[in-house]
């Protein structure tokens, strides 16, 4: 039986009173009315069950309403919800110590926020104060937030509004599938693409070309000096875009030579999602100066964080920096419990095992269907790049994307969409998913694509 207020009434309210984004966009043509969740499962208001392979955009790291985390949250809620961070509360200190222990030296100073945008905003401010420089560089196709500052950094026009761009410049994204150079062996993924390039074995010339583009950005596009270079270790909203193996290493070096700091946006890739490492940047063998995180950090409870070095944190020593909710006891105890569950349940290892299985099986679907151009990613940070055909690599039309997306949902599986042209299906489930769940998703996805091909 349908739960709660009628669907029609909800849609009327959504049109009249809800934030503009919800007025313009319902993610699905026929919207999903979500009522309840448990681990990798969601139920709508009619009681229909969905396998959640998007996890609220890679947010529900250890499962919806994870019973262990929920028990901790309920206990904390009965004890204390809030004081400001001007007092000392045990959950905040406990959490900061635990989080800092998971990052390499000298990344030991933690700032707690309530979202990823706030964490990135803070990172921009900190980089500018620390370096005395103003300019920011990000990669095309990136998403770093929706605040005015982080929107400037975001380089995907679907999420940008014509406001001042605040000293932000985007350089060419070293995307070896859509970019002009490179092939699958340039990147660190368990699967190879159909696209190969002419680089001699073990020598990625594409990387040099993309680094050349960064050099050109320095030479031509910055009004002053670089304060920071922002990159996600694997792009999320961009559609699991992976860079040539040495790109970040060389980019970091160039930014530092010019007096800037390097920032890893781990909002999607952190907390073991990439499987091979706890932090995405570790997969690139780089050492950021600032790491920002959110989403999976508290499994869906609003929270974000920035971790940096004592030297950079000193940029704030001159004055006050205050955040009413940042580090509140509810968020800290939940985030702390999320870390415990990750350890107890081995979620990073599960991301690696189930993720690699998914990538391998998706690569078979890629070989079967003309409209899958590329399968990429690591662990449970996966993108399936859809094309009109494998030769032209023209992004699959929005109408076709929607058809497949809608039918996948109707068959009970929720996935995401991404990519600059909306051409990428994103597979980022909670890290508790099993191989059986993967098989279910694969069967549904295969069928949706086949049905579309049969209609076309
Ligand atoms: N960085 C990345 C990589 C993200 O994917 C997002 C959210 N999609 C953000 C930052 C912003 O996080 P929030 O929505 O919590 O502000």
From TrEMBL:
The principal localisation class reads: mitochondrion
Q: Which UniProt keywords apply?
A: Aminotransferase, Mitochondrion, Pyridoxal phosphate, Transferase, Transit peptide
Task: Supply one GO CC term from the record.
Answer: mitochondrion
Give the first-level EC class, as a single word.
transferase
Catalytic activity line of the entry: 2-oxopentanoate + N(omega),N(omega)-dimethyl-L-arginine = 5-(3,3-dimethylguanidino)-2-oxopentanoate + L-2-aminopentanoate; N(omega),N('omega)-dimethyl-L-arginine + glyoxylate = 5-(3,3'-dimethylguanidino)-2-oxopentanoate + glycine; glyoxylate + L-alanine = glycine + pyruvate; N(omega),N(omega)-dimethyl-L-arginine + glyoxylate = 5-(3,3-dimethylguanidino)-2-oxopentanoate + glycine
Record-stated family: Belongs to the class-III pyridoxal-phosphate-dependent aminotransferase family.
Name of protein: Alanine--glyoxylate aminotransferase 2, mitochondrial
Organism encoding this protein: Gadus morhua
**Gene behind the chain:** LOC115532500
